[in-house]
Hints:
By secondary structure, the chain is an alpha/beta fold. It has one domain (4-87): Oxidized Rhodanese, domain 1, CATH 3.40.250.10. Helices cover 35% and strands 22% of the residues. The protein has helices at 12-15, 31-34, 54-65, 77-87, and strands at residues 4-8, 24-25, 45-50, 71-76. A 4-stranded parallel sheet has the order 2-1-3-4. The protein is globular. The two termini are 22 Å apart.
Amino acid sequence: MADTYWIDVREADEFATGHHPEAVNIPYESIGERIGEVTGEKHADIRVYCRSGKRSGVAKATLESLGFTQVINEGGVEDVLSKIAAEK
């Protein structure tokens, strides 16, 4: 499998307070227009998250409507960071 693309769909000021070390910041409102900055591969492994999981759910639906097939809503940033810490 190719790379995993992590996308933090919160606002830039939220992203600045802490994020997944491999994440790029694309606010959920612009994910449809900006996903090409990350990948154009429709079967890429894309992981989205936000503060609670709601905005990342919207982002996931947007990406799926554009034909992306492997999008996972990872929930909130604290969930993501906790998983990383547990893997160390």
